[in-house]
Amino acid sequence: MHSDCIFCKIATNEFDTEFLYESDEIVAFRDLNPKAPVHVLIIPKRHIEKISDTNESDALLLGKMINAANIIAEKENINDSGFRLVFNCGKDGGQEVYHIHLHLLGGRSLTWPPG
Ligand code: 5GP
Ligand code: ZN
Hints:
The protein has 115 residues and is of the alpha+beta class. It contains 2 helices and 5 strands; from the N terminus they run αβββαββ. The chain has one domain (6-106): HIT-like (HIT family, subunit A).
């Protein structure tokens, strides 16, 4: 737990956030400033700054994050229409919060390539 990290605080439920999914390692909650009708952030409870800080020993955790996204997509009824999963990494990747999070975006047709 990093006391200056907003997502660590959310993960320990300091703000009484509604979790769409929770396991011993992962929580998911709605983005404060949604970019699509469904915009959910899936995060590990453990503080990891950037996706580039992960390695093979994190493979199971990262796979579980994708699995959590699938479960949420099903609950949010965007399985058939489709969705996008995104990790922003570092400055050029547009990362704003330095605690890794998987964006689940759906509920509208998303353009490609992203800006
Ligand atoms: P990034 O640009 O780092 O990939 O994405 C950070 C995301 O976190 C943004 O979409 C932003 O709207 C969201 N966000 C930032 N602070 C908070 C917060 O306190 N609560 C929630 N639910 N989302 C946040
Ligand atoms: Zn953190």
